């Protein structure tokens, strides 16, 4: 299983029009070819960004589906004039993810992206795997993913929160109870955080 995280930078003021265009395009047939995991827009951090996450069985399956959907009614959406840029990352899921997770776990979703030293990803997976069950009791753990293609040594993890107040309380409690961060985990070289909210058509709400 792989996950494609594709980020779009929109020119300011275009987000409502972008959402309307995607609503029409997705309902026109794209979702008949593969499931959408999530579609978000930034609320804090870099503004005017949209992120969609598509899972695929493999890189070959991704390519086949992209070929199938090119030129179908409404796809790709007519959003090119709204975009200032885009970037894509291919991630592999951590073994402790719940691949079936969907539905309402927000409406606030925090995506944190770390980079680690070369060779540290197996230790990250091991230490997180030992600690994640206790941490996910405190707030919804949507998933963690790592790169093996493109920008290497990246680790992304996504959490759901009902409010910004809950996020602050959970993070404080997790540290106070020594639940999180995972004991013995490698220290990241860099850290980035974005707070997203779901579009109306996102499976993660």
Walk me through the structure:
The protein has 205 residues and is of the alpha+beta class. 26% of the residues lie in helices and 33% in strands. The chain is built from 4 helices and 8 strands. The chain has an 8-stranded antiparallel β-barrel. Strand 2 and strand 3 form a beta hairpin. The two termini are 22 Å apart.
Reconstruct the topology from this structure:
Elements: E1 2-10, H1 15-27, E2 38-44, E3 49-56, H2 59-69, E4 83-93, E5 108-115, H3 121-136, E6 141-147, E7 154-161, H4 164-176, E8 190-198
Antiparallel strand pairs: 1-3, 1-4, 2-3, 2-8, 4-6, 5-7, 5-8, 6-7
Strand composition percent: 25-35%
Helix proportion = 25-40%
Give the C-alpha Rg.
17 Å
Overall CATH class: Alpha Beta
The CATH architecture can be given as: 2-Layer Sandwich
Strand arrangement in the largest pleated sheet: 1-3-2-8-5-7-6-4
SSE pattern, N- to C-terminal: EHEEHEEHEEHE
Unreliable stretches (pLDDT < 50, length at least 5) are none
């Amino acid at each position: 299983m792989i996950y494609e995280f594709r980020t779009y930078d929109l020119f300011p003021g275009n987000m409502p029009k972008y959402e309307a265009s995607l609503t029409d395009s997705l309902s026109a047939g794209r979702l008949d070819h593969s499931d959408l995991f999530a579609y978000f827009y930034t609320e804090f951090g870099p503004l005017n960004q949209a992120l969609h996450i598509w899972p695929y069985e493999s890189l070959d399956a991704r390519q086949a589906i992209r070929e199938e959907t090119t030129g179908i009614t409404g796809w790709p959406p007519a959003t090119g004039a709204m975009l200032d840029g885009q970037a894509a990352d291919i991630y592999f899921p951590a073994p402790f993810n719940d691949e079936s997770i969907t539905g309402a776990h927000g409406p606030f979703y925090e995506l944190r992206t770390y980079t680690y030293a070369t060779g540290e990803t197996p230790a990250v997976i091991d230490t997180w795997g030992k600690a994640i069950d206790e941490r996910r009791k405190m707030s919804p753990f949507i998933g963690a993913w790592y790169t093996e293609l493109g920008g290497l040594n990246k680790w992304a993890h996504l959490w759901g929160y009902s409010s910004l107040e809950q996020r602050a309380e959970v993070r404080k409690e997790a540290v106070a109870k020594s639940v999180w961060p995972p004991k013995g985990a490698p220290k990241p070289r860099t850290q980035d955080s974005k707070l997203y909210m779901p579009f109306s058509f996102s499976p993660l709400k």
